[in-house]
Amino acid sequence: MPRWKKFLYALLATAVVVTGSWFGWSVLHRPDTCAEGVERIGGECVGVDGTGYDFGTKGIADVVRAIARENERIEKLPYVTVAMMMPLQTDRPALRGQIRSDLAGAYLGQLKANEGEGEPPKIRLVLANPGRDYGHQSAVVDTLLRMADSPEDRLRAVTGFNLSLDATEEAVRRLTEHQVPVLGSRITGDRIANADGPDGMAKPAFPGLARIIPTNHEVAQALAGFNGERGREDRRTVLVHDTRRDSYDESLAKAFDRIEESGPAGPAAMPFTSPAIDEVGSTGNQFTQIANNICDTEADTVYFAGRALHLRLFALKLAEVGCGHRHYTIISGSDAASLRQNMSEKDWRRLRGTDGEAKVTVQYAAPAHPDAWSTELAAWRKRWERTHGREPAGREEPQYLAEPDRSLAELKRLIADAGRTGLDSPPNLEDSRTMLVYDGMLTIGTALHQVQSGGADQVPGLEDVGREWSRLQSRHRVRGTSGLICLTSGGNPYDKPVAVVELDPGRAAGGRVKFVGLGWPTGRAQPKNCVIPSRTP
After folding, report:
1. Does residue 38 sit within a domain?
2. Phi/psi at 311 (5° precision)
């Protein structure tokens, strides 16, 4: 065989080997995907999708399909993208219900924001799953940053963020450092917030961050004010707090500890350590010891700084220990809004005891409650009639009650229109999640519409949207279902009320969640037209 033929065959053989090796390597190293744009990492489906993928979570398929339909409807219109970032994959029924409530709120808010004619831009909603406890947030943030630069995606805001964790804080920090506006609809941790006033405006910790829910410090002040002397008498109160590193637990414990109390000193704080947000570990043993120690004190009000899973077990242990015929009230933060979903009929019986009377009542600051406005308005009207001898006219009703009441009625009408929403079943408003996330989307939609200028195809700039948050006050307040949203210079809601709710086992089977009143962080209702004062009166 001629030498040139031998060389050619050798060259071809080498090419075949190289090609085969490259193909084999690419197959072995190809990302394992759950759907386009969603990668399987450690058994979790992590990534961003707006085409109807449900991340393998039962019970949310109808909502994600509805979001995809709305995205298709507006794809030929001027639009920008908003991402809903939160853990979206779980096999726990209670967490699946919470995820569905959050997604339903985002979808309904998207529908509301998109309904006006001649009001660009429309909102294309995508879902961003950072994995359990935001463990893979870095990869998802990378994708979102690329979407912010993409002429096709035009990402202009990220919302969601339902857990105050270190990983959540890091995700918010990276996004805002790259000028991507963030609206936190459910994060209450004090660390994920900008300071108000000149210092905060000069160098905000998170440029372009806004929140529509009070911080844990504000929640603690509202709860203490609502409970009056009972919540501020030192000998009758005790703090029980989780020492696991968790921004929510840490800031709530600090906020409860800073409540100004009076009278003789009460018992010192009692710590416990949980293994994780969704694991109980040995907390049951710790709670039994803590409950016995509380029995030997005069305390009957327990400030609990921990997650809902551990709050449930603590309440049961406190009821189990008994302490004679004493009744205890446990006061906690917004995470307790998911407590009822984790309660069984057996749990309710344990809280009631053999005589049917409640041994333990759990009180918490829900970010919203569907009975808040109708209950408060009814009480206000009775007081008005006693004072004025007649029924009040509509214009005489306080804005801070009447406007949220009308907004909630609009949301209920939207939910009832199953033909429009396409949802298999209506969301449960009682857990506050749907209402809060819906309000977050309303706030984003308001900012996008107000910052839009020029032609319909003009895309608002990232920094322009971020700067718009602080202008959503006074005349431009957002009339949310959870209350009036008036954002400060730091993007924080001014004096946003909390719905004080009690989980009362009572005598009836199944227990109940009862709205008992509004708590105000400043100790008084928001001013007329939600005009933010330069200083607290």
Report:
1. no
2. -60, -45
